Amino acid sequence: MDLSVIIPIYNEEANIPTLYSRLRGVIDQMGVSCEYIFINDGSRDRSLALIHELATAHHDVRYIDFSRNFGHQIAVTAGLDLSTGQAVAIIDADLQDPPELIPELYRKMQDGYEVVYAKRRRREGESAMKLFTAKLFYRILASITNISIPVDTGDFRIISRKVVHALKQMPEQNKFLRGQISWIGYRQTYVEYDRAQRAGGETGYTYRKMIKLALDGITAFSDVPLKAATIMGFTVSGIAFLVLLYTLFERFITRDYQPGWASLMVSILFLGGVQLIAVGIIGEYLSRLSANVRHRPLYIISETNIPTTAERELR
Ligand code: UDP
Ligand code: MG
């Protein structure tokens, strides 16, 4: 198998037919053997039925149906786990990532790269809030991690079997694939494109899911927030100590003191805030630590037409 295309699906009934016909048109022209892997991530619309139809009609359409919604990163991971292509393309189902770019990504890979990611030049039809938060997040991430995670890229990219193999050796529960792929290394390059609007349907990425992804990215690749909590603690304690000396001086030496309700309130609130922030940061890391210690499977498959490795070996 030359190429696997991985398509995570969450309520995409409006986009699946167009997506498939555009993908097929582009890839048939490339003259490579290809498998299409749809991962139904607990959709509540007709997505699964549409995927079933495609799989019945075309022998190279594979699907994985999850028992519930596990999230985009886990859906892609399942696709990677069960893919067999020498090259693997990851693409969103909503046609925001143009399938027409895949041949270019693939060609670039043949020049000796293990990862070719698609970098967004422009993003259309997304709210100012989303653009701003995304930009802020990528800049913060770049400044506090020691690996270089490319700015303005999503998961739309093509990676080689070597990289898939390396990813499979990274067992973390809280996946942040674009960070992990940067961490893996090898020769990586990019192709630029203009990101279109979502073709149909609505985004499955709520702010809640975006915040989770952002925190997964930061906690998996940086200890800076933990260190910041420590530094903040020391700074505030230092200031508090000076204020203490000053208070004692006023009280016992100059004896010129006021009933200090305001200063008391301010310092209590401030100290309380700093302490809560620090505890919260520690909590973020701790919760991920405990998730990994539990060793749960990343996802539960309800149904698939992909043979397991054991079944493949029997043939
Ligand atoms: N997706 C998924 N599980 C989710 C949310 C999204 O598999 O819980 C899929 C979705 O079907 C799409 C891709 O991930 O193929 C990107 O999602 P979306 O377009 O909603 O994100 P956005 O482009 O708004 O960031
Ligand atoms: Mg989208």
Account of the 3D structure:
With 315 residues, the protein is of the alpha/beta class. The protein folds into 2 domains: 3-202 and 296-310, Spore Coat Polysaccharide Biosynthesis Protein SpsA, Chain A; 224-293. The chain has 11 helices and 8 strands. The chain has helices spanning 16-30, 47-57, 72-82, 102-110, 128-144, 161-168, 177-184, 207-221, 224-254, 261-293, 309-314, and strands spanning 3-9, 34-40, 61-66, 87-90, 115-123, 153-160, 188-195, 301-304. It has an 8-stranded mixed beta sheet with strand order 7-5-6-4-1-2-3-8, sandwiched between helices. Helix 9 (224-254) runs antiparallel to helix 10. The longest helix is centred in the C-terminal third of the chain and has 33 residues, at 261-293. 30% of the residues are buried. The mean pLDDT is 86. Magnesium ion (MG) binds at residues 92, 94, 96, 198, 203.
Features:
315 residues; alpha/beta; Spore Coat Polysaccharide Biosynthesis Protein SpsA, Chain A; eight-stranded mixed sheet; 52% helix; elongated; binds uridine-5'-diphosphate; binds magnesium ion
Compact summary:
This protein folds into two domains: 3-202 and 296-310, Alpha-Beta Complex (Spore Coat Polysaccharide Biosynthesis Protein SpsA, Chain A); 224-293. Helices cover 52% and strands 17% of the residues.
